[in-house]
Specification:
alpha/beta, 7-stranded parallel β-sheet, 13% strand, Glyco_trans_1, GDP-Man:Man(2)GlcNAc(2)-PP-Dol alpha-1,6-mannosyltransferase activity
């Protein structure tokens, strides 16, 4: 992939900053973007607060990409399952401060009396050899996504341009914004968090979003910023999803989940907002009429996060309530008894045994890339069920269409831009877009299972054409390359920008108030004693 912005004569040093490099759509975008820019000749390194090789994409731990873990020691991911966003921000700030220190040490190399502090000729190769004394060469530009809190530090302290990729405004993802009764205390706690997000997002040199839907939501959420972000659709490696999966059948992890039953596939992180219960309930109704079908619920699972643990446990309980024979396959499952999160009444159960033939619902926490490729490309897989509402875009439907699978998705959010509804365009349709009701999804699942070979082939061809034309990795990386070069080419000095001067004034006011208040408190007792003595 030979990408190069017009007029560029050198390669860039690009630093990616991502909170948790696990398994998910945002992580897949970061990995694909890093790979594409690296293949274009740029120097790319990823900085993250957490990276578990057993719960991550292969490119992040097989040496393909250089990944550094910083900010994973001072603050936990949450406090007993609470204050997750606060902890995420603190961990990101810890990461960036460590990175700033490393870059500063590199810039001080060669100065008098610094040799005893900075090791000579010790480039940072990976997170394994990182230390507070490690020097790191500066970057031309940073690519930050999900959390924007670090942007002022990167720009003002390092004087480095930064691009922010907004998957979705975080303040709309918290329960108090989506109709949950969370109480006034939580709403009060969110006020400074939301203010930090809006302010720090505005400090990005360029803001990118993943869909027209997110672009519209961004403008409605942050009207004070007066910015319209540029849409850069996430892309996928189309060829990777068009190769045969026959060779994967010999893999032990694939044999443990393989079946000749017609299979419906759902891929999401095990989070409540992903609404996987919809697929489970609709499947249960169809299974009464078609008993020889199977549902596979696969996705990222982090035992450190209460939402993941509770959601998987609740889905297992729901499957039992619906009288469905279930099995959860995860050989590497840790003991949840040692987890720091509170115990709940929905405690998930894992197994290292092969799925029995009678299994109707198969749960696959942290499934491998080989398992994923097999499930998407297997001749027994009939369709993808994509349940989230108002999803920002959705990488999984793209992967399914590239694999030739029809997609059933919610008629909200990003899927409306990726999936063409068979009901409105039968010749070019790639699936169905429906309201999230069990009745509508039950009818659609029946229709997908009853498709003829000719209908299935037509949908498969339409899906592959659409992904090739609009959602390939090459297309995404070309647009990112242009955006990064435009950002680097900005000539105005950061310290002379009006936003920087305004920020100094904004921060100086509360600092002055705090100093004054502290001075009064420290001197009040002494003043009172003087008054009492004079009396």
């Amino acid at each position: 992939m030979a990408l190069r912005a017009e007029g560029s004569q050198r390669r860039l040093r690009i630093g990616f900053v991502h909170p948790d490099l696990g398994i998910g759509g945002a992580e897949r975008l970061v990995v694909d973007a890093a790979l594409g820019l690296q293949e274009a000749g740029h120097i790319v390194e990823i900085f993250t607060s957490h990276h578990d090789p057993s719960r991550s994409f292969a490119e992040t731990h097989d040496g393909t990409l250089k990944v550094h873990v910083l900010g994973n020691s001072l603050c936990p991911p949450s406090f007993r399952g609470k204050f997750t966003i606060v902890c995420s921000i603190l961990r990101q700030l810890n990461l960036v401060i460590s990175l700033i220190l490393a870059i500063t040490l590199h810039q001080l190399q060669g100065w008098p009396l610094t040799g005893w502090i900075i090791p000579a000729q010790t480039p940072c190769k990976s997170s394994a050899d990182w230390s507070w004394r490690r020097a790191q060469e500066p970057y031309d530009v940073f690519f930050v996504d999900q959390l924007s809190a670090c942007l002022p530090l990167l720009r003002w302290v390092l004087r480095t341009r930064a691009v922010f990729y907004c998957h979705f405004p975080d303040l709309l993802l918290n329960p108090s914004k989506i109709g949950h009764n969370t109480g006034g205390l939580r709403n009060l706690y969110r006020i400074p968090i939301d203010a930090i997000e809006e302010f720090s997002t505005g400090q990005a040199d360029k803001v990118l979003v993943n869909s027209l839907f997110t672009q519209q939501v961004f403008c409605q959420t942050f009207p004070a910023l007066q910015r319209t972000p540029r849409v850069v659709y996430p892309g996928i490696d189309v060829k990777a999803f068009q190769e045969t999966s026959a060779t994967n059948r010999d893999d032990a992890s694939v044999q443990a989940i393989a079946s000749d039953k017609p299979t419906l596939l759902s891929i999401n992180r095990f989070e409540a907002k992903k609404n996987a219960a919809l697929a489970l309930e609709a499947f249960a109704i169809v299974a009464k009429q078609m008993p020889h079908i199977r549902l596979v619920l696969a996705g990222g699972f982090d035992p450190r996060l209460q939402d993941n643990v509770t959601t998987l446990g609740a889905l297992q309980t729901l499957a039992s309530t619906l009288d469905l024979h279930q099995h959860t396959f995860w050989p590497a499952a840790p003991s949840l008894s040692q987890s720091s999160i509170p115990r709940t009444r929905f405690e998930p159960v894992f197994s290292a045994d092969q799925a029995p033939e009678a299994t109707q619902v198969l749960f696959l926490p942290n499934f491998t890339q080989i398992q994923k490729s097999y499930m998407l490309q297997s001749s027994t897989t009939r369709a993808l069920l994509y349940t989230p509402m108002n999803e920002h875009l959705g990488i999984v439907p793209l992967e399914a269409m590239a694999s030739g699978l029809p997609v059933l998705a919610s008629d909200t959010g990003g899927p409306c831009e990726t999936v063409i509804d068979l009901a409105t365009e039968p010749s070019e349709g790639t699936g169905y877009l429906l309201p999230n009701t069990v009745e509508r999804w039950t009818d659609a699942i029946r229709a997908l299972l009853e498709m003829t070979d000719e209908q299935r082939q037509r949908v498969a061809s339409a899906g592959r054409r659409r992904v090739n034309a609009h959602f390939s990795t090459r297309s995404m990386c070309e647009k990112l390359d242009v955006a990064l070069w435009e950002t680097v080419s900005i000539r105005t000095m950061i310290w002379r920008e009006p936003e920087f001067l305004n920020a100094i004034m904004i921060f100086s006011i509360p600092l002055l108030v705090i100093c004054t208040f502290t001075f009064v408190l420290l001197n009040a007792p002494q003043h009172q004693r003087a008054v009492s003595q004079s009396i």
